[in-house]
Every structure is written in C-alpha cells, then in structure tokens.
Design brief:
heterodimer; A: 11 helices; elongated; B: alpha/beta; 2 domains; six-stranded mixed β-sheet; four-stranded antiparallel β-sheet
Chain lengths: 257, 330
C-alpha cells in the first residue's frame, strides 16, 4: 500500500472510532442538539418580535444565520474531543503507532461532520415547525446544506488547531468563545447590518461570517446572490487549507520524523 | 538485530532551562528488562518519550531495535509497543474495539486485527468483558487492556511507563506475571517505576535516575552491595550485658557494633561467619538474646543512600511539574 492509501485507511479507522463514540456520550448531545434548538426558540419568540427584517419573516431571516452560527460552535465538539484524547494519553498512543500523522486530526474532523449534520437536521426540523419555509429550488436547498457542512468542517479544523495550541478543553473553549462571539453577532446572522451603527455596519459587511450567512440566505430563502455563494465557498476552502495545515504542523511538532 | 535492543548515548533534553535529561546512557540487551528507577520528575518519562519517538532529543543519540529514534522514527514505530502512565485506552470503545483499532493502525488488516484482539482478550482474561465499554472496567482491567494494546503487533521492544501505579496488589502481581511471560518469549522491556519491589522482581538491570542523570546502574544485587553488605541485628535479652555482647561480636563485624535501645546492630564482614557464628559466640559469652536477624539492604536503602531522599512519591506536584514543562516547551 502507498503512503496515501495508508493515510486514507488510518483516517477511516479514526473516523470510525469517533463515530462509534457519538451515541455513547449522551452528555455531548446537549451541546449539538438541545442548545441550538433553544437558540432558535429564543430568537424567534423572544427577540424576533423586536427585530425588523424588511422583505422577510424573521424566522426566514434567522434560520440561515443561526444554522451557520451553530456550525461554528460545532468546532467545540472537535476541540473537546481532541483535548480529551490529549489529556488521557490517547494522542501519545496514536503518535507511537506507525500510522499516518494526519489521520488523528483528519478522522476527528471527518467524524464531526456527522454531529454537525445531526445538528442541522434538528434545527431545520424545529425551524420548519415554528414557521420557516424554503423558498428556493430543491437544488439550491441541497447546495445550502452542503455549504453548512463545508463551513462546519472548516470550523472543526480551526478548533482542532486551537485545541492543540491550548493546554485544556476549558482553555480551548474560552479562546473559541472570544473568537466566535464577536464574529457571529457582529454579522448579518441575527439582524440586518443596516440597523447597526455605521462603524459596526462596516465591520459586519466585511465579516466573512456575513458572507457565508448571506450565501445561505441566497440558497435557502432566495435572497439576492451578489456572488456571496462563491465567496463563501472560497472562504471555507481557504480556512480549511490554512487551519488543516497549522493543526497538522502543531500535531507533528513534538514528534521527530 | 544487534545485541542491544535499547541503546542510548548521552541523551539530553531541556525544557526551558530545566535539564530533564542531562546526558544519560542506557543499554538493554535483547530479551532483558531494564528498569529506570527514580523519583517523580527525575526524567524517566522524558527518556521513554524520546525512545518511543514522541519527543526529539536535544542531543545525544539512541537506537531501539537497531533503528535510530530520530532518523528512523517512522520505521521504528512498527517495532515498539508503549503502555503509558495513564492507561491510554479509549473509554468509549469496548475492549475488543480498542484492540482492533490499534491492530488496524499497525496496518494488520481487518481479519488479522480481529483475531489478534480475540487472542489478547483471552490471554489477559478480558474475554468476558470484551464487549463492554472500557469505561466500565476496573483499574486493573484497564491496565491489562493498555498492556494488551502495546502487544498487539508483537513488538520486539516494549516500553512500560509506571505500569502498576495505582493498582491493587493482586492486579500488580498479574501484570508482573504477564510481563515476565513476554520477556521469557524474547521481548525486551524498558520499565520505569518508582516501586523498588517492582524493579527488584522484574529487572535484569536497573538504572537509578535522579535530576536527569544515571547515578548508578547494575543488577539489583550489585546496587545493594554498593550500599553495604548484610547487617546483623540482635535484640538483647533482659539483663544481658551490652559490653559483653559487643566484645563477642567484634570479630564478625566490619565496624564497631552500635547499640540503641537494647538492639545491637553491626555490619557483617564477608566470609567471617553469619548468624550461626554470632549465636554461638553470644552463647559462649553468656549473653541472652530475645531476637536475632540478618538484614540485607533493600533497594530502599540503595535509593536513600544514592539520592538522599526516599523513593515513594512525596507529592503529586512533582509529576505535574514535568508534564507541564513539556507542555510549555512543545
């Protein structure tokens, strides 16, 4: 077998291991199912009435934004899993094995696509119950789901890097919150940027989060495209390339090759 | 394969300005057990991490199973097994899933990995628990699973970093027997421990490590001889004369006998008669005794003499210290 074939096989073994763990860690389910649903209900029923979104029902405006936010928080699952493996010595065991250096992280982030997919399904399900409707073609709806997954995958890599760079799961979470909170809330995810003070509006318009949220709105509720979809895909791929590189580098660093 | 399965020359590793390893040399011939003995923070774990390719050394060189730990790291990983200080098993997988996963990661292929897992579960008395999540296992079962994982690929060299820390006496004994069986089958073992009885029982050769240096090495007996030979302790009977006892025993002693609280202690000279001779002399001198015994020095005595402190962990902090240093330097 070639090195590449080994890398693929090793990644599959680690992904399988992480997938097996999902149903066995019910406490983790809170963070990727119940929590996002609470956010949907909070925004629709508590804040929604006070937020003006010209041209859209608030729930239609909200769903793309909140799904994208949840995808970014999905990175916490990656970070917690990796920190856990580090702390318990599993990463040491993996590093002492003749397996591909990229497989531990590759398998981890791949398995986390599954938790993100469950998250999306639960949220969109609840969204549909509280009045969300898709108003675009089925192809666009599917492309929208694909964009969510891609974005979630990018954030898994960002958080893999964060987890390997901090000494504890708590540290990774704290750093992640500091990173994600301003980015998601100062974006077009929950309110139209036009309603913000001008300096913040400028930030929100330039924020890549807005680009991705606007792209998903274009794909799901037929908002104007403005090239956001391609820009969003480019952002996601760029983030994956950069942070996968950094994370694998970080993983290898303590190892002589 | 060369005669030495593990060979290290002048290994050095610093974390910031702390010398975790300050130039150590180690040799373990094929099929033997080399024990690294030392207090927490002495550098044992750092040495294991370097020899298992987890950490690059700052200086010096090491070969394991004939392969250089830096240049041939990738090839070396398929020839070693590591069982860590913390039982590194995935607690959300069953025992069988854990072993199969490790087999797959050694690139054994699905069928052989499954068969090997079954075999090891059987050998480590884990068959009944094979399909239970390992988080439900007892401490001893986890250690056995961890050790089994290290043996999956039948590596010629295995590294055991404090394998019995925290185990109950029965589980320790079981683990020792397993290790002895591997060695009898030709496996070379490097074992770190802070338990002297463990080194005493398992090791062919012991390297005592303190502050990143090997401060003594040899067999258990050689180390004990360095501290001194046998010591005779006599508890004098009621009304027995201390003076008479000392006079009677002087010819046997290396040094002048000391008496404390009615117990006479003297280092025995080699080849000048042991306990039987002592009893005869005391009897001839009319000195009554309550008790008489010969003490061999223990590794504890060796340890205290060599390092100036006891081997048992004083506080957990020292261990955290070493781990944290590595963390920060990484």
């Amino acid at each position: 077998m070639s090195a590449l074939a080994y890398a693929v096989a090793d990644t599959a073994v680690i992904a399988k291991r992480n997938l097996l763990r999902i149903p066995r860690q019910p406490d983790l389910w809170v963070s990727f199912t119940i929590q996002p649903v609470m956010f949907v209900l909070l925004f629709v029923y508590v804040f929604g009435g006070a937020i003006r979104t010209p041209g859209y029902d608030y729930v239609d405006f909200l769903m793309p934004g909140i799904v994208i936010q949840t995808m970014s928080f999905g990175g916490f699952v990656t970070a917690i899993g990796l920190s856990d493996d580090l702390r318990k010595g599993l990463i040491d065991r993996f590093r002492s094995l003749p397996m591909a250096r990229s497989a531990v992280l590759g398998g981890r982030t791949l398995a986390d696509v599954a938790t993100n997919a469950i998250s999306i399904a639960v949220m969109v399900g609840v969204g549909l119950i509280v009045g969300f409707t898709f108003s675009s073609s089925p192809i666009e709806v599917i492309a929208g789901f694909a964009l969510c997954i891609l974005f979630g995958y990018a954030f898994s890599w960002i958080f893999a890097f964060v987890a390997l760079s901090t000494s504890s799961a708590e540290g990774a979470q704290a750093l992640g919150f500091m990173l994600i909170f301003p980015l998601t809330f100062a974006s077009s995810a929950f309110v139209p940027p036009e309603s913000m003070p001008s300096w913040l509006e400028a930030f929100a318009e330039a924020n890549p989060f807005s680009t991705v949220v606007d792209a998903l709105r274009a794909l799901w509720v037929d908002a104007p495209h403005n090239n956001d979809v391609w820009a969003a895909v480019a952002w996601c791929i760029g983030l994956i390339v950069v942070f996968a590189g950094l994370a694998v580098y970080r993983y290898r660093r303590a190892v002589s090759t | 394969m060369p005669d030495a399965a593990i060979e290290a020359h002048d290994l050095r590793k610093s974390f910031k300005d702390v010398h975790a390893l300050d130039g150590i040399d180690l040799v373990a011939p094929v099929g033997t057990v080399l024990s690294l003995l030392g207090p927490n923070g002495a550098g044992k774990t750092t040495a294991v991490r370097i020899l298992t390719t987890l950490l690059p050394p700052d200086g010096g060189s090491a070969r394991v199973a004939g392969l250089d730990v830096v240049r041939d790291a990738a090839a070396l990983r398929s020839r070693i097994g590591l069982a860590g200080q913390y039982a590194a098993v995935d607690e959300n997988l069953t025992g069988r899933e854990n072993l199969e996963m490790v087999g797959r990661l050694y690139h054994m292929g699905g069928g052989p990995a499954r068969r090997r897992a079954d075999e090891l579960l059987e050998r480590f008395s884990l068959t009944d628990a094979a399909d239970r999540l390992s988080k439900t296992y007892s401490g001893g079962m986890r250690r056995r699973l961890d050790l089994a994982a290290a043996l999956v690929a039948r590596p010629p060299v295995i590294f055991l970093d404090e394998p019995t820390t925290g185990l109950d006496p029965r589980s320790r004994l079981q683990l020792w027997e397993t290790i002895e069986a591997r060695v009898a089958a030709g496996t070379t073992v490097l074992l770190t421990t802070q338990y002297l009885d463990e080194a005493d029982r398992l090791a062919d050769s012991i390297a005592v490590i303190d502050h990143g240096r090997v401060i003594a090495e040899g067999t258990s007996d050689q180390l004990k001889d360095r501290v001194g030979g046998e010591r005779l302790e006599v508890t004098l009977g009621e009304g027995a004369s201390t003076e008479a006892a000392i006079e009677a025993l002087v010819p046997l002693a290396e040094d002048r006998p000391k008496c404390e609280a009615g117990v006479l202690a003297l280092p025995l000279s080699r080849g000048r008669g042991g306990i039987a001779e002592a009893v005869r002399r005391l009897d001839d001198a009319g000195v009554g005794i309550d008790d008489i015994a010969v003490h061999r020095p223990t590794l504890d005595d060796v340890f205290i003499t060599l390092t100036g402190h006891a081997a048992e962990p004083e506080e957990e902090e020292a261990e955290v210290g070493e781990a944290e240093l590595e963390e920060r330097a990484a």
